[in-house]
User: What shape does this take?
Amino acid sequence: MSKGSAPKFTRAMMVLFPLAKAFTSRGGDIGAVLARNRIPLGALTDPAMLVEARACYSAMEDMAETLGDPYFGAKVAIETAMKGTPGLWQAASHALTLGGFLSRVVVEVSKQVDNVRYSIFVSPDIASFEVQRTISVSKPSNQLDAVGVAFFVTVIKKGIGEKFDPKDILVTVPTTAGLPPGFLPKQALITSGINGLRISFPPQWLWAPFSLDWNLVDSSRGEFGPDSDGKATLSYLRRVLVENIGHDDLSLERFANICGLHPRRVQRILEAQGTSYSQVKDDVRRSITEDLLSNTTLPIAQIAPQVGLSGPAALDRAFRRWTGKTPTGFRAEAKSDCSDCGNEMPIKNRLLTGKGRP
Assistant: This one.
């Protein structure tokens, strides 16, 4: 195989993990989707595992089709853009302007994948942020294109705040079929044969003050001050754990980096609340596991990597330690006791409020 036709790869964890979490929360069988697209289950939690890019693209379409939701990818992308991603945290935290952020994204993404190339072009009249795919897409790219547009437009809008005007933005993309109605005015969207996407806007936006609040650098002055509300702080750290627990190496150092704090700072915050990082992580892991066992039909082999455990055996050992029961036994009891499941609080809400465990 020649160099030009060699497969292009991406880190499935970076591309598919948020989609897989949302798909599972809506009752989807992510294991089946991955199997149909020949993606190893471990790719969702192993940051070093590379997967052929076309398989990731196909899995995105598969999830949307399975759920019957043409806007699935865009919805997840918008939510992800509002919360941030560990992969782009550093680019966001060190950028003072939109131009600074986009420039850092170009560098950061090049380290992660070879299936896309990011670039920025600036003229006196217009600035463009471009995502060019290095492979052609044979199947419809509704979800792929929608995810890219929804994510970056939302980031730009959130980052520059009142400076953002939808009348001043122009998006060029192969298809807009996956974008929710009203996401952008129709005149802001152009469909063309471009192999990727282009977001154009006034060059003045590049120098606009930029802040995403994806970390605690600003809020820590009050929330993490000596007179702070400890329960609110603990709630925040718990939320970050819920969002990232599937990482197979969520060490204290890595977790602290995601939060924008020094590891010792995280330790002191948790100690002041009478707990520790390992205890909170264990509690979050247990809460998510119990919710998935009680409220989904997801196979136990697929639950383990979603909570950062190596496999069914590791999950079985941990669950026996937590509850004295096997995961299978717990699920059977939960099914028999669930006489009013229709009134259950959504899984994510229970986890974020700490109500995931009986």
Observations:
- The beta strands are 9-11, 50-52, 116-122, 127-133, 170-173, 189-191, 196-201.
- The two ends are 56 Å apart (CA to CA).
- The chain has two domains: 3-207, 220-352.
